[in-house]
């Protein structure tokens, strides 16, 4: 399954952050458990999203507890990207 280029960038951020050996389990339909992503790794991934797309953390924090799949994690990355775009006149 092919992802849009912007989502590929978010997926790359996730892959760079997960523990070694877990990258092959990273695909949109995987659950966080299947991908080996625990709460600490989630915090690191969200931190990486915010490094790439600086902006308010609150919108991400509100949704963080409901994230169960890589696709939902990509949604969080999109929220960060959209907030950054609006703050910087790109959206």
TrEMBL record:
InterPro entries: ACP-like_sf (IPR036736)
UniProt name for this protein: Beta-ketoacyl synthase
Organism: Stigmatella aurantiaca (strain DW4/3-1)
